[in-house]
Amino acid sequence: MTRTVLFQLHWFLGITAGLVLAVMGVTGASLSFEPEILAALNRDQPVASGTRLSGPVLIERFAAQKPGAAITRLTVPADSSEPTLVGYTLPGSKERHVERIDPATGRLTGELRGSGVFEVMEDLHRWLALPDGGDGWGRQITGFSAIALIYFALSGLYLRWPKRPLDWRNWFVLDLKKTGRNLYRALHAVVGGWVLIFYLVSGLTGLWWSYDWYRDGVKAMLVAEAPAERTGPAKGAKADLTLAWRGFERATEGRHYDRIVASVRDDQVQFRARLPDARHDRVSDELTIDGINGAVVSATPYAARTLGEDIVTSVYELHRGAYFGIAGRIAILLSSLTMPLFTITGLLLYFARRRRKAALAEVVTDTPEVPVAQATTLVAYASQTGSAERIARLTAKALPAATALPIAALDDAALARVERLFVVASTYGEGEPPDAARAFARTLDGTAPDLSHLEYAVMALGDREYADFCAFGHRLDRWLHDSGAIRLFDVVEADGEDADAQRHWQRQLAGLGGRTDQPDWAPAAMGDWRLVERQLLNPGSSGGEAWHVALEPVGANADWMPGDIVEILPQQDARRVAAFIAANGIDDTAETRAWLMTRILPEQPEAGIAALMPPGHREYSIASIAASGRVELIVRRCPAADGFDGLGSGWLCNGAPVGGIVQARVRANPAFHPPQDPATPLILIGNGTGLAGLLAHLRHRAAGGGGPVALYWGERQAAHDDFHAAERRALIERGVLTRSVTTWSRDPGGHRYVQDAVAADAAAIAQAVAGGAAIYVCGSVQGMAPAVHAALTTILGDATVEAMLADGRYRRDIY
Asked: Measured between alpha carbons, how far is 53 from 85 in angstroms, rounded to an integer?
């Protein structure tokens, strides 16, 4: 709860004070080196040679040139490379002018080039150049922003505290290989760690000029005894600067200083005399001289200051970093220049978060909730920014009798009552659960409950650019497995806003009886592909027709890896469209038929056909390798409940004309990619049209060489369903396929499935795995996949199977 409140306040202050701080940072960076910049800009202005005039003489020469003008400040440096400056006001005006005065002749030479720009910057820095100056509301805004800066530094430190705080790399190493939102977050957090101490110094000292109560409090805390209250000047009293300067000279007994600054304050003059080789301007003797009689009112030599007095005197030098010498000034300069970075990255992260919240709100308003007590399927989410909750609610909408709920509400009673559990879990920070799931995460370390009655699946959200990618989702998967729950399919990993992973999860749900008429949750552009070949693979089979289908990209070439998926945008069976038109009395035109071919057709279009939604995509494992230049598929033609062709299979096997255009896109499926080392032996297991995904690996190994491959595959009848038999025999003859076992479930002699062949070959499989083999399973999530998994668990042991899943040596593409 504390973390959430701090985070929300961090965001709120960021979008309110961030822009002001960006302005203050840029202007403050410029002001930190104002003297050097002005000196460089005015280096071409000549200074008369000769003996440098004393302060009183300069005052006299000024008065001769500006009769009636009142000097407010006189700066006399010992070094001729630094300008001698006089600040004054004219009679009847409060406007302050600053001019350069020649230290050898006393002649006024005009304003410093660039001084007007720095005046504007100072006004912006202190009160945003708003009306009424230091007494206006601009000062309140900058004061509030200074408080916000302190809060940003401290709350940011708390919010990004790493799991391994003693490892300095977690604090200071910036990985510029990151992209998008990850890069924005890394810049915001890591650079924030670099400048944190400087922002605290800037904020704490900046408040000095914003609030009197703060300044008085700091003085009371650091200075043992407050100076006596000064009585107001006598009415009409005016300091004689010449008299005061001579009083200063008497008090300092001719000591040498690098610079003397005299500031007139009513009837008194304050002198700040910088010591030779001082690291900043306030390493100086401070004297106040009575401007009426030249007497010393107060004198504080630098050597006599306490630490507290030195800090109070040097607040401005602390603020600009000069208190720590040139290194401190450079550090404050660089840290000030980074302030716009935090404003920009903070806003980018804020807008990304808003987009997620908007997407979630759209889903929430469009999703009727099934009461938890009536649900037979629960969809639990652990969400930090709303992405996991959005996917969870869409998941609940896709499944019958399902409801979504936060994982914190997932108690023992709910788990004992339901039949299926789907979990969508984000990983936050360095493998941590989202804030709202921290309490539930602590229960994972306790005694595992008995969940043997439960079937489950997990979608893990994370960022591959972090070492602990999807760590919390995998932790939940292990906990459910260790509790005896039955895994429906392997963890689906989503990298950020991974559209491919979201569509893969959506189609996995469809394979378990989820709705297939939903549009894609994360749509991506489809391209034109030409259907170049279609051939029936199993004429005379007692099962459904299986077709070899080949597509070629139109225009640009496409690339893919073995294991990748092609997504097809299907169209309706033309007979279904005709029946729909007739049943609903719709005008039968070519335009209407073309429109309805690409829409989901309800029994009655209550809102009219213009409101009908497009169908979701259909997924098929790619059987070919990219070098062939075309995508080859094995597609089972399936009838729909109304007797017409199913959307995807009907369109590819019967509806789309050979030579015609099909809308499709390739989706990466890294969870089923080949091993990085081609020498790794492969054990390929599948059934039916799952042969397509296994063929891609066989063809890849045949083209590039590598370790031995064993294939276990099952279909219905040897006489009719031996898909691509000639090619498999050729691979055996070439030595690519070193072991091939085929089972037939409808041939005489009893039902024999691929899982039976796996169990019968237990010794060979165990030996191959011990030798480093990887196992790939492709086919039906109902029946084949769980039966093969059970057989492998019996052969290898549960611990070995789970370890192979974790390290990628056991991969499944099931549907």
From this structure: 13
